[in-house]
Amino acid sequence: MTHSDHQRYRRLLIKFLATSPLLGLGLAYCSSNDTSPAPVSNGNEEIDEDDLYRMINTIEEAINVFDFEAVAKKNLPPAHFGYIATGTNSDETLKANRAGFSKIQLKARRLRGLTKANTSIELFGQNWNTPIIVCPVGSQKAFHPEGEIAVAKAAKNKNHLQVLSTVTTSSVEEVALARKAPIWYQLYPTLKWEQTLEMVKRAEDAGCPAIVLTVDLTGGSNRETLQRYVRLDTRDCNVCHSPPRNQRKPMISSFPDFDFNGNLDWDFVQKLKSNTSMKVLVKGIVTAEDASLCLENGVDGIFVSNHGGRAEASGRSTIECLPEVAEAINGQIPIILDSGIRRGTDIFKALALGATAVGIGRPYIWGLAAFGQDGVEAVLDILRKELEMVMLQMGTPGIRDINASYLI
Question: What are the residue numbers of the active site?
Answer without folding.
Answer: 307
